[in-house]
Specification:
Blueprint lengths: L2 H11 L3 H14 L4 H13 L3 H14 L4 H15 L2 H14 L4 H13 L3 H12 L6 H14 L3 H14 L4 H18 L11
Keywords: Repeat, TPR repeat
Organism: Gimesia fumaroli
InterPro entries: TPR-like_helical_dom_sf, TPR_2, TPR_rpt, Ycf3/AcsC/BcsC/TPR_MFPF
């Protein structure tokens, strides 16, 4: 691998945003068809809040790399999520799920921005769909499904989701913390006079 290209990717993974952008701009002048660097460049642009520039890079990439439209849609979704425009992010993440309906990650992204808008029922449906996918981060799908179920008060079901996430990834710290939370809540509820014994759907 060319040393400059390697430096760009190292800067990207080390979160060295401005260095990554400067080097990528130089590299892409002579290598405009480098898809990987183009997409990393776009992401670092929006992390620097150069939103319009990043959007243009993504839109140009859609024309140049149509075979990678799923990842580009997800990149645009990530941009709008980072910008706090969750309804716009939802549009692009939905496009990603339509372009690749068997990858859990895109459904998880979709469900996450639906949840950020307070649409927990829609988010639940997206995360449930994610758990049925064959590829992607299935453990995150179960964790996120548990989060939206917890938000709706379905503690037993949420706990089961967190356990499934932990079974897939025994080191999943966020899922372990969430499981402790709902188990603690259920213990507290059980001691309350007249408390319901079932917090499932």
């Amino acid at each position: 691998m060319h040393s400059l290209r390697l430096a760009i990717l190292c800067d990207f993974y080390d979160d060295q945003a401005i260095s990554c952008v400067i080097l990528a701009e130089h590299w892409l002048e002579d290598h405009p068809d480098d898809k990987l660097v183009t997409l990393k460049y776009a992401e670092m642009l929006y992390l620097l809040t150069r939103y319009d520039d990043a959007i243009q890079v993504y839109l140009d990439a859609l024309e140049k790399f149509p075979e990678n439209r799923c990842g580009i849609y997800a990149g645009l979704g990530g941009l709008y999520r980072y910008r706090g425009q969750f309804s716009e992010a939802e549009i692009w993440f939905r496009k990603a799920t339509e372009a690749n309906s068997d990858n859990a990650t895109f459904f998880t992204f979709l469900g996450a921005v639906q949840a950020r808008q307070g649409n927990l029922v829609e988010a639940e449906a997206s995360h449930r769909r994610a758990t049925k996918c064959a590829t992607g981060c299935i453990d995150e799908a179960w964790h996120n499904l548990g989060l939206v179920l917890r938000g709706q008060g379905y503690l037993l079901d949420a706990a089961e989701c967190f356990r499934k996430a932990i079974k897939l990834d025994p080191e999943y710290a966020d899922a372990k913390e969430a499981l402790r939370d709902v188990e603690w809540a259920m213990k507290k509820i059980a001691t309350m006079p007249g408390a319901a014994t079932d917090q499932g759907e």
